[in-house]
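Re-run with default settings, no changes from the original entry. Doing this only to confirm the output is reproducible before filing.
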Amino acid sequence: MGFTFITKLPTPDAIKEQFPLAAELAACKKARDEEIKKIFTGESDKFLIVIGPCSADNEDAVADYVSRLVRVQEKTRERLVIVPRIYTNKPRTTGEGYMGMVHQPDPEKKPDLLEGIIAIRHLHMRILQETGFSTADEMLYPDNLPYLADIMSYIAVGARSAENQFHRLVASGCDVPVGMKNPTSGDLSVMLNSVVAAQVPHDFIFRGWAAHCPGNPLAHTILRGAVNKHGQSIPNYHYEDLRLLHDLYAKRNLANPACIIDTNHSNSGKKYQEQVRIAKEIMHSRNHSSDIKSLVKGLMIESYIEPGNQKIGEHCYGRSITDPCLSWDDSERLLYDIAEQV
């Protein structure tokens, strides 16, 4: 086999024992889980916002960014539930480029998976401790989920992973909402099949164990746009797209029909400033149709301190080193605008 085994990594239990979650933080996270769960079950009419950098590349800058969300949450708490996007593993279309903090705690140094595992747990715990926000991350590597599962309140499965059987099986055992993105082809049936698979029970092999998962009734869809055969972006956030998804949900026996809309990626054609316009259009669609309002539970927004993005090594504090993001000033205004339309 063409593998060179470098370091035997500690188990999630060993990492949790080394870096335990304090009881008061666990209680805070549990309360947040309940608040978010009620959005998906329809018990709450609050609106979910998963917002933050494309990738969490610098602990201090990310913590600074999230601290700014605290005062926005305080002012909008009757209408919004904000979950910081702390994405520590980054899918790459070609497998090239920065793959996230779990690979490279320092983007300018070589990969170090052991230090990466410690770094991502420290970051997620720091956010919870300093701000009271439990977090969101992408489940790019299902085997890594237990390192963070006691801290996260929201999990996303990406466009390239939603069709993968292992991701679907692991999602069925998660205790928090798991969003399944539509694939890059835009096929909504694939996305809905992922939700079906995540909502039913499964028995499978996980981290060397024969495991049973009961099914996750909070599994739901994420619309992120698509790409056609010419490589052109095809948005799927418009009113007609949401109406179609509502009708497709109605044909399936799924618990808690729900959708989150990603305002960036192929929905914006990675034109990050368009996220403002897109978010406002979605809110208009929700207010136009009670069906769409009950279906669309929230938005995903890519946002950081400084607008746009930069190359690794340019050292602009709070600017993305992966996909371009909205500035903090634009993001703050947008959050208040969204709250007014909920």
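Residues 13-341 form a domain with the TIM Barrel fold (CATH 3.20.20.70). The chain has eleven helices and twelve strands.
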